[in-house]
Amino acid sequence: MSHVLHRNLNQKYPTAVKGDGPYIVDREGRRYLDASGGAAVSCLGHSDEAVAQAIKDQVSQLAYAHTSFFTSDPMEQLADFLIERAPAGLDAVYFVSGGSEAVEAALKLARQYFVEIGQPQRKHLIARRQSYHGNTLGALATGGNAWRRQQFEPLLINVSHVSPCYAYRDQQPDETPEAMGIRLAAELEAEILRLGAENVMAFVAEPVVGATLGASPRYRATSDASARSVIATACC
Ligand SMILES: Cc1ncc(COP(=O)(O)O)c(C=O)c1O
How far apart are CA 128 and CA 143, in angstroms? Predict the structure, then answer.
Protein backbone atom coordinates (compact mmCIF):
# COMPACT_ATOMS: atom_id res chain seq x y z
CA MET A 1 0.00 0.00 0.00
CA SER A 2 1.30 3.46 -0.96
CA HIS A 3 1.80 6.04 1.79
CA VAL A 4 1.77 8.84 -0.75
CA LEU A 5 -1.34 11.01 -0.68
CA HIS A 6 -1.87 10.89 -4.42
CA ARG A 7 -3.96 13.47 -6.27
CA ASN A 8 -6.64 10.92 -7.06
CA LEU A 9 -7.13 8.33 -4.34
CA ASN A 10 -9.00 5.96 -6.64
CA GLN A 11 -6.42 5.83 -9.37
CA LYS A 12 -3.46 3.50 -9.65
CA TYR A 13 -0.55 5.41 -11.13
CA PRO A 14 2.19 3.87 -13.28
CA THR A 15 5.65 4.22 -11.70
CA ALA A 16 7.77 6.58 -13.74
CA VAL A 17 11.40 5.45 -13.65
CA LYS A 18 13.19 7.20 -16.46
CA GLY A 19 13.14 10.18 -18.79
CA ASP A 20 14.19 10.05 -22.41
CA GLY A 21 13.85 13.33 -24.33
CA PRO A 22 10.12 13.88 -24.84
CA TYR A 23 9.26 10.48 -23.29
CA ILE A 24 8.65 9.25 -19.74
CA VAL A 25 9.24 5.52 -19.26
CA ASP A 26 7.43 3.47 -16.60
CA ARG A 27 8.63 0.40 -14.69
CA GLU A 28 7.04 -1.93 -17.25
CA GLY A 29 8.96 -0.19 -20.03
CA ARG A 30 5.95 1.64 -21.47
CA ARG A 31 6.87 4.95 -23.06
CA TYR A 32 4.62 8.00 -22.68
CA LEU A 33 5.01 10.92 -25.08
CA ASP A 34 5.04 13.93 -22.73
CA ALA A 35 3.62 16.28 -25.33
CA SER A 36 2.97 19.16 -22.92
CA GLY A 37 6.30 18.91 -21.03
CA GLY A 38 4.56 17.89 -17.79
CA ALA A 39 2.70 20.94 -16.58
CA ALA A 40 4.56 22.88 -19.28
CA VAL A 41 7.69 22.92 -17.13
CA SER A 42 9.86 20.18 -18.66
CA CYS A 43 10.41 22.24 -21.78
CA LEU A 44 14.04 21.08 -22.07
CA GLY A 45 13.00 17.44 -22.29
CA HIS A 46 13.59 14.66 -19.78
CA SER A 47 17.07 13.56 -18.68
CA ASP A 48 18.91 15.78 -21.13
CA GLU A 49 22.60 15.01 -20.58
CA ALA A 50 23.82 18.61 -20.57
CA VAL A 51 21.09 19.66 -18.11
CA ALA A 52 21.79 16.66 -15.84
CA GLN A 53 25.52 17.42 -15.89
CA ALA A 54 24.95 21.09 -15.03
CA ILE A 55 22.75 20.07 -12.08
CA LYS A 56 25.35 17.56 -10.85
CA ASP A 57 28.20 20.08 -11.17
CA GLN A 58 26.32 22.71 -9.21
CA VAL A 59 25.17 20.32 -6.47
CA SER A 60 28.75 19.08 -6.03
CA GLN A 61 29.92 22.64 -5.63
CA LEU A 62 27.05 24.16 -3.62
CA ALA A 63 23.44 22.99 -3.30
CA TYR A 64 21.89 25.83 -1.31
CA ALA A 65 22.68 29.24 0.17
CA HIS A 66 19.81 31.25 1.62
CA THR A 67 18.99 34.31 -0.46
CA SER A 68 18.54 36.41 2.69
CA PHE A 69 22.29 36.23 3.16
CA PHE A 70 23.98 35.38 -0.13
CA THR A 71 23.88 35.80 -3.85
CA SER A 72 25.54 33.27 -6.18
CA ASP A 73 27.07 33.25 -9.64
CA PRO A 74 24.42 30.94 -11.21
CA MET A 75 21.61 33.14 -9.87
CA GLU A 76 23.27 36.35 -11.12
CA GLN A 77 23.96 34.76 -14.52
CA LEU A 78 20.39 33.53 -14.93
CA ALA A 79 19.02 36.96 -13.99
CA ASP A 80 21.30 38.59 -16.59
CA PHE A 81 20.19 36.05 -19.21
CA LEU A 82 16.50 36.70 -18.54
CA ILE A 83 16.77 40.49 -18.42
CA GLU A 84 18.71 40.61 -21.70
CA ARG A 85 15.61 39.02 -23.29
CA ALA A 86 12.93 40.83 -21.26
CA PRO A 87 10.82 43.77 -22.48
CA ALA A 88 12.29 47.22 -21.87
CA GLY A 89 11.70 48.46 -18.33
CA LEU A 90 12.12 45.09 -16.64
CA ASP A 91 15.52 45.05 -15.01
CA ALA A 92 15.35 42.72 -12.01
CA VAL A 93 14.26 39.14 -11.35
CA TYR A 94 12.88 37.70 -8.10
CA PHE A 95 13.45 33.95 -7.99
CA VAL A 96 10.88 31.57 -6.50
CA SER A 97 10.13 27.87 -6.76
CA GLY A 98 7.04 27.75 -8.94
CA GLY A 99 4.08 29.49 -10.50
CA SER A 100 1.79 29.81 -7.48
CA GLU A 101 4.59 31.25 -5.38
CA ALA A 102 5.43 33.65 -8.21
CA VAL A 103 1.84 34.93 -8.29
CA GLU A 104 1.75 35.29 -4.49
CA ALA A 105 5.03 37.20 -4.61
CA ALA A 106 3.77 39.45 -7.42
CA LEU A 107 0.59 40.29 -5.49
CA LYS A 108 2.56 41.12 -2.37
CA LEU A 109 5.08 43.13 -4.37
CA ALA A 110 2.27 45.21 -5.90
CA ARG A 111 0.73 45.81 -2.48
CA GLN A 112 4.07 46.67 -0.85
CA TYR A 113 4.90 49.08 -3.69
CA PHE A 114 1.70 51.07 -3.18
CA VAL A 115 2.07 51.09 0.61
CA GLU A 116 5.60 52.41 0.26
CA ILE A 117 4.68 55.19 -2.18
CA GLY A 118 1.91 56.35 0.14
CA GLN A 119 -1.15 54.83 -1.57
CA PRO A 120 -2.22 52.19 0.98
CA GLN A 121 -5.86 52.33 -0.20
CA ARG A 122 -4.86 50.39 -3.31
CA LYS A 123 -5.93 46.82 -2.63
CA HIS A 124 -8.24 45.77 -5.48
CA LEU A 125 -7.21 43.10 -7.92
CA ILE A 126 -8.72 42.48 -11.33
CA ALA A 127 -8.19 39.24 -13.24
CA ARG A 128 -10.10 37.27 -15.86
CA ARG A 129 -12.78 34.61 -15.62
CA GLN A 130 -11.60 31.10 -16.45
CA SER A 131 -7.96 31.97 -15.73
CA TYR A 132 -5.66 29.83 -13.61
CA HIS A 133 -2.93 31.41 -11.53
CA GLY A 134 -2.11 28.64 -9.09
CA ASN A 135 -3.39 26.69 -6.11
CA THR A 136 -2.28 28.71 -3.09
CA LEU A 137 -5.00 30.89 -1.60
CA GLY A 138 -3.95 34.24 -3.11
CA ALA A 139 -3.30 32.70 -6.53
CA LEU A 140 -6.54 30.69 -6.36
CA ALA A 141 -8.49 33.84 -5.50
CA THR A 142 -6.87 35.63 -8.43
CA GLY A 143 -7.79 32.86 -10.84
CA GLY A 144 -11.29 32.87 -12.27
CA ASN A 145 -11.83 29.15 -12.66
CA ALA A 146 -15.14 28.62 -10.88
CA TRP A 147 -14.79 24.88 -10.36
CA ARG A 148 -11.41 25.18 -8.66
CA ARG A 149 -12.53 28.10 -6.47
CA GLN A 150 -15.95 26.82 -5.39
CA GLN A 151 -15.33 25.04 -2.08
CA PHE A 152 -12.64 27.53 -0.97
CA GLU A 153 -14.70 30.66 -1.71
CA PRO A 154 -15.01 31.78 1.98
CA LEU A 155 -11.21 31.77 2.29
CA LEU A 156 -10.49 33.80 -0.83
CA ILE A 157 -9.69 37.51 -1.04
CA ASN A 158 -12.07 39.58 -3.13
CA VAL A 159 -11.05 39.80 -6.81
CA SER A 160 -13.01 41.23 -9.78
CA HIS A 161 -13.11 38.94 -12.79
CA VAL A 162 -13.63 40.35 -16.28
CA SER A 163 -14.09 38.41 -19.55
CA PRO A 164 -11.25 36.26 -20.84
CA CYS A 165 -9.79 36.85 -24.29
CA TYR A 166 -11.47 33.76 -25.67
CA ALA A 167 -12.18 34.23 -29.35
CA TYR A 168 -13.42 30.67 -29.88
CA ARG A 169 -16.50 31.27 -27.70
CA ASP A 170 -16.80 35.02 -27.24
CA GLN A 171 -15.93 36.67 -30.52
CA GLN A 172 -19.16 37.93 -32.10
CA PRO A 173 -19.92 36.81 -35.68
CA ASP A 174 -19.49 40.32 -37.09
CA GLU A 175 -16.64 41.30 -34.80
CA THR A 176 -13.02 41.66 -35.98
CA PRO A 177 -10.25 40.53 -33.62
CA GLU A 178 -9.29 44.19 -33.17
CA ALA A 179 -12.86 45.09 -32.21
CA MET A 180 -13.01 42.20 -29.78
CA GLY A 181 -9.77 43.37 -28.16
CA ILE A 182 -11.14 46.90 -27.83
CA ARG A 183 -14.40 45.57 -26.34
CA LEU A 184 -12.46 43.58 -23.71
CA ALA A 185 -10.17 46.53 -22.93
CA ALA A 186 -13.28 48.70 -22.44
CA GLU A 187 -14.73 46.11 -20.05
CA LEU A 188 -11.50 46.18 -18.04
CA GLU A 189 -11.50 49.96 -17.98
CA ALA A 190 -15.12 50.03 -16.84
CA GLU A 191 -14.23 47.74 -13.93
CA ILE A 192 -11.24 49.93 -12.98
CA LEU A 193 -13.54 52.99 -12.98
CA ARG A 194 -16.23 51.14 -11.00
CA LEU A 195 -13.71 50.26 -8.29
CA GLY A 196 -12.10 53.69 -8.47
CA ALA A 197 -8.78 53.79 -10.35
CA GLU A 198 -7.06 55.05 -7.20
CA ASN A 199 -8.06 51.84 -5.37
CA VAL A 200 -6.86 49.29 -7.96
CA MET A 201 -3.59 47.54 -7.20
CA ALA A 202 -3.07 45.21 -10.17
CA PHE A 203 -4.53 43.50 -13.22
CA VAL A 204 -3.38 39.89 -13.56
CA ALA A 205 -3.63 38.03 -16.87
CA GLU A 206 -2.01 35.12 -18.65
CA PRO A 207 -0.51 36.39 -21.94
CA VAL A 208 -0.99 32.86 -23.30
CA VAL A 209 -3.93 31.21 -21.58
CA GLY A 210 -2.79 28.05 -19.83
CA ALA A 211 -4.21 25.26 -17.78
CA THR A 212 -7.90 26.10 -17.83
CA LEU A 213 -8.55 26.65 -21.52
CA GLY A 214 -6.97 23.49 -22.89
CA ALA A 215 -6.30 23.99 -26.57
CA SER A 216 -7.76 27.34 -27.48
CA PRO A 217 -7.77 28.54 -31.07
CA ARG A 218 -7.44 32.27 -31.27
CA TYR A 219 -7.22 34.66 -34.15
CA ARG A 220 -4.23 36.80 -34.80
CA ALA A 221 -5.22 40.31 -35.77
CA THR A 222 -4.34 41.22 -39.36
CA SER A 223 -5.36 44.19 -41.46
CA ASP A 224 -7.37 41.83 -43.68
CA ALA A 225 -9.93 39.99 -41.57
CA SER A 226 -10.34 37.31 -44.27
CA ALA A 227 -6.64 36.46 -43.90
CA ARG A 228 -6.83 35.70 -40.20
CA SER A 229 -4.42 33.01 -39.18
CA VAL A 230 -5.41 30.62 -36.46
CA ILE A 231 -2.94 30.10 -33.68
CA ALA A 232 -3.69 27.02 -31.61
CA THR A 233 -2.30 27.37 -28.16
CA ALA A 234 -2.10 23.91 -26.68
CA CYS A 235 -1.58 24.05 -22.98
CA CYS A 236 -1.27 21.71 -20.05
C1 LIG B 1 -0.65 30.54 -15.81
C2 LIG B 1 -0.26 29.76 -14.60
N3 LIG B 1 0.03 30.43 -13.46
C4 LIG B 1 0.38 29.76 -12.33
C5 LIG B 1 0.45 28.37 -12.32
C6 LIG B 1 0.81 27.66 -11.04
O7 LIG B 1 2.10 27.13 -11.12
P8 LIG B 1 2.60 26.02 -10.10
O9 LIG B 1 1.83 24.78 -10.43
O10 LIG B 1 4.06 25.91 -10.42
O11 LIG B 1 2.35 26.50 -8.71
C12 LIG B 1 0.17 27.65 -13.48
C13 LIG B 1 0.24 26.17 -13.47
O14 LIG B 1 -0.24 25.48 -14.34
C15 LIG B 1 -0.22 28.36 -14.65
O16 LIG B 1 -0.54 27.71 -15.78
Answer: 7
